[in-house]
Design brief:
By secondary structure, this protein is α/β, with parallel strands linked by helices. Helices cover 31% and strands 29% of the residues. The protein contains eight helices and 15 strands.
């Protein structure tokens, strides 16, 4: 990429005195039209410096403004960075030039590694069936999960942490069941369940084939992404973020992305919580050099459940073929 990067100072028009225009695109006199996907980042930097800023296309040609521009060639055409100010506005010209220099310094080929989320393979409805089944036999049901389930007329106790086990009281230890709710990693639920069994040896509950692994898979995917990334951007993610050897930055708005975070970041990981913000981040990163976007997913399969379904289907097929039941 470095061999295709070109810096230029171009004459432009359509910029009023006192304003700075961040180009969303401009016609380079030699390379043709340059798309400026990173314009939101540059505009945010100027607004934070209390500059009067506007985003839009910049007309290149003889005029009374100067466009500071950087362009490079990619697989999808010409991309660039561009900021223009009126030729009589010295402070505006300095700000425009400095901003383009700052972001030009982070141009490079990158990849984005997104921790893909998985849909919950065991919906809440399935867990609630078990809750009502256990309650119908006269048991108090301990719900192992992050939040209570929407139930009425059923005696339940929510246990979210190991520490909560000691607070469970007023229950008959001989008539006690558990259900693991979707949304809690199975590994965390297992620790809680072990503590419950130590306190209530007669505890009984659902078969582990019914546990939902979606939260476990999300966490493992994020751990994998974090360990492979130089920078991890937390974009609205509400679950625990693992320790990583690189930087971890919470991002509530794409304009809060900083150039110095990206200088050494060849791989940018994303913890996705806000899909719209993730899309915006990817778009502006495309404006900072060639970008590969990869989604990493972890999927857990309950083997015995799958094999049982396969055997049942095979039996049904054989029965239909032979006409037996």
């Amino acid at each position: 990429m470095n061999r295709s990067v070109e810096r230029a100072r171009l004459s432009a028009s359509g910029v009023a005195p006192g304003e700075v225009v961040v180009a969303t695109g401009f016609a380079h006199p030699r390379r043709g039209w340059a798309e400026c996907r990173a314009a939101p980042l540059l505009a945010a930097g100027l607004r934070q410096a209390d500059r009067r800023v506007r985003r839009g296309t910049v007309r290149v040609g003889t005029g009374d403004a100067v466009l500071f521009a950087t362009t490079w060639l990619g697989q999808d055409g010409v991309s660039g960075l561009g900021v223009a100010a009126h030729e009589d506005d010295e402070s505006g010209l300095d700000a425009a030039e400095q901003l383009v220099e700052t972001w030009s310094a982070v141009l490079r080929t990158r990849r984005v590694l997104i921790a893909a989320t998985t849909p919950e393979d065991s919906p809440l409805a399935t867990a609630l069936v078990r809750v009502r089944e256990f309650a119908a036999r006269g048991d108090t049901v301990i719900l192992i999960g992050r939040r209570a389930a929407p139930l009425t007329g059923v005696a339940t106790v929510l246990v979210s942490r190991v520490e909560d086990v000691a607070t469970v009281d007023g229950v008959d230890p001989e008539r006690l069941s558990f259900v693991v709710l979707p949304g809690i990693p199975v590994e965390d639920a297992a620790v809680i369940l072990a503590a419950l069994r130590r306190r209530f040896p007669r505890l009984r509950g659902q078969h582990p084939d019914e546990f939902c692994y979606a939260a476990s898979d999300r966490r493992e995917a994020l751990r994998s992404v974090a360990s492979a990334s130089d920078l991890l951007l937390v974009c609205g993610w509400t679950e625990d973020v693992p320790h990583t050897h690189g930087q971890v930055r919470e991002l509530s708005d794409v304009g809060r992305l900083r150039a110095h975070w990206l200088v050494q970041a060849a791989t940018v990981g994303i913890a996705p919580g806000d899909p719209a913000l993730v899309d915006e981040v990817i778009e502006v990163l495309r404006g900072l050099g060639p970008l590969s976007v990869v989604r990493r997913r972890v999927t857990t399969e309950v083997t015995h459940r799958r094999e049982a379904v396969t055997r049942l289907r095979a039996h049904s097929s054989n029965a239909r073929a032979t006409g037996t039941r």
